[in-house]
Specification:
heterodimer, A: 392 residues, alpha/beta, Peroxisomal Thiolase, Chain A, domain 1, two-stranded antiparallel ribbon, 36% helix, globular, B: 172 residues, alpha+beta, OB fold (Dihydrolipoamide Acetyltransferase, E2P), five-stranded mixed β-barrel, three-stranded antiparallel beta sheet, 3 helices, 13% helix
């Protein structure tokens, strides 16, 4: 049952494009944006002249060391003399891009939108960790000298204790996603690894080890969105955006239980309600939950109500989330396998579902029939969730 | 189909023409604001000060001027007990810039014992700080979770009105 919003125009995704994801690409941010945008336009059979509006997503200005990063990449994103806007929601940016593009079209404001996510993390030298240090509160947190991974380690340890999940249980996510990425020609960190490899990798901040984390990456991704009248004209297989949701929790992250992401649930409920989905665990066929860390995929799956609280590790062990399983998750290879150029990787997840729902994912195509899909991205100080529901 | 994007190795890049190295030079003087200024003065005196929301009654620690939940002004100040329980902890082997630490650092989220709280609420007055007297093994075995801890202060003459006036939280 659809209940809560009046949507003026039904919105479809009609094209998608990706660059290579890698630790260092020669291209500038604008060049990366242009490559992905051109691919997306090409796949939709459109040219830039057919585009009404542009939505750009890029997360962290500090990676480029240039403010107004959005304006700097806008030319490459097709923004010239068009209504153009940038969204930045930290790690949640990736899925926020198609969400913002959706409301441009759903409102009737634009018939076609080019949505581009770009991130070039490798500028920051020798390691972008130094830039990440600026997410912390300058007075309460920075004097303690934290690195970004601390907060994930604290959350992961809490989740492990609450759910009685072991390091082995969680490492299986990394094993699965890196293996899925072997079939993705855009991937940076595809590998056939074992749980033991994860457990033997360098411990950065216990319980987080090197192979628990997605690598630093450069890359861009783009989608073309169109309203129903345009979509029906240009393709026989539009992928519909059925629901969107987003929510933000407080930045006082040590004032709340981190073992369960309530803000993810809130964003998911908003998206499912719009999509008329009442039992997501039954109705969703395939998912791309945010997986910057392996435990994060499980955490997000529970927040997305695709598994009960603390149930995701068991379902994972039983093969439920494999490409051949009942609910394939991160069939693209996820961020763990693909690399994590922040705004691009979330958009990549939406692009993967676009290909899966059109049965165009090639070697990555999941076994089961797919009709409804959900992607999420996550960010901030354990704060941000952005969720999109698609159907064919 | 050819995939756009040309991968370059770090060493190759360093040899290329037109590579610019740049370190931003910017200085900031942050004001602690209405609520945190009082909190920091309290730390200097060896006190942990929180605020109580005038509307829902929840205790805000770190203190803020307004309760983000009720959106009403936070009311009275109160001094909180300096004891609490470890909710979660981790052991860091890397620095803020990703260098190796010589001695691993153990940090935690501490749920403070606050009046009117049972101790199992999903929202709670809490502090993010270092732990001392705790070994790596204590964290990895899970022994430290739920442990009772209390604030260990720097000597009064060394306190500067900073979060580091508390040296760490120690078991007791």
């Amino acid at each position: 049952m659809r209940t809560n919003v009046h949507v003026k125009k039904r919105v479809a995704i009609v094209g998608a494009g990706l660059t290579l994801f890698a630790r260092r690409l020669l291209e500038t941010p604008a060049e990366l944006a242009w490559e992905a945008a051109s691919r997306a336009l090409g796949s939709a059979g459109l040219a830039l002249k057919d585009i009404d509006c542009v939505v750009i997503g890029s997360a962290v200005d500090g990676f480029d060391g240039v403010h107004m990063k959005g304006e700097h990449i806008a030319d490459g994103a097709g923004g010239l003399l068009r209504p153009t806007v940038r969204v930045a929601m930290g790690g949640g940016t990736g899925v926020m891009v198609p969400i913002a593009a959706w409301w441009h079209v759903a409102s009737g404001l634009c018939k076609t939108v080019l949505a581009v996510g770009e991130e070039k993390m490798s500028h920051a030298y020798p390691h972008p960790q130094a830039v990440f240090a600026y997410i912390w509160h300058p007075i309460l947190e920075r004097p303690l000298g934290p690195n970004l991974i601390w907060i994930f380690a604290l959350e992961m340890a809490w989740y492990m204790r609450e759910c009685k999940a072991s390091k082995e249980d969680i490492a299986l996510v990394s094993v699965k996603n890196k293996r899925n990425a072997l079939d993705n020609p855009h991937a940076q960190a595809a590998a056939n690894i074992t749980v033991e490899d994860v457990l033997k990798s360098e411990t950065l901040v216990w319980p987080v080890q090197l192979l628990d984390i997605s690598p630093v990456s450069d890359g861009a991704a783009a989608l073309v969105l169109a309203d129903e009248s345009v979509a029906r004209r240009i393709t026989d297989t539009p992928v519909w955006i059925e629901g969107v949701g987003f929510a933000l929790d407080s930045s006082f992250w040590y004032n709340r239980d981190l073992s369960y992401p309530r803000y993810v649930e809130q964003a998911a409920r908003m998206a499912y309600k719009m999509a008329g989905i009442e039992r997501p665990w039954k109705e969703i066929d395939i998912a791309e939950p945010h997986d910057p860390f392996d435990y994060k995929e499980l955490h997000n799956l529970e927040g997305l109500m695709l598994a009960r609280k603390c149930e995701a590790p068991r379902l994972l062990k039983e093969g439920h989330f494999e490409r051949s399983g009942e609910l394939p998750t991160s069939p693209s290879g996820g961020l763990l396998g693909m690399g994590n150029p922040i705004a691009a990787s979330g958009l990549m997840k939406t692009a993967e579902l676009f290909w899966q729902l059109r049965y165009e994912a090639g070697a990555r195509q999941v076994k089961k029939a797919v009709h409804k899909a959900v992607a999420s991205s996550w960010g901030g100080l354990m704060q941000t969730s952005t969720v999109i529901v698609l159907s064919r | 189909m050819e995939i756009p994007g040309k991968y370059v190795r770090e060493e190759e890049l360093r040899k290329m023409k037109g590579v610019i190295e740049y370190v931003p030079k910017a200085k900031y003087s942050y004001s602690a604001g209405q609520a945190l200024s009082v909190f920091l003065r309290g730390l200097k005196e060896g006190k942990i000060l929180g605020k109580r929301c005038s509307s829902c009654g929840r205790i805000l620690l770190p203190p803020r001027e307004f309760c983000e939940s009720c959106f009403s002004p936070a009311g009275e100040w109160l001094e909180l007990p300096q004891t609490g329980r470890v909710e979660t902890a981790s052991v860091s082997y890397i620095s803020a810039k990703r260098g190796k630490l010589e001695r691993p650092e153990i940090v935690a989220i501490i749920r403070l014992d606050a009046p009117g709280y049972r101790g199992d609420e999903p929202e709670f007055p809490g502090i993010f700080h270092r732990l001392c007297g705790v070994s790596e093994e204590d964290v990895m075995s899970g022994r430290v979770f739920g442990a009772r801890v209390r604030a260990r202060w720097r000597p009064a003459e060394q306190r500067a009105g900073s979060i580091t006036d508390i040296e760490c939280f120690e078991r007791w």
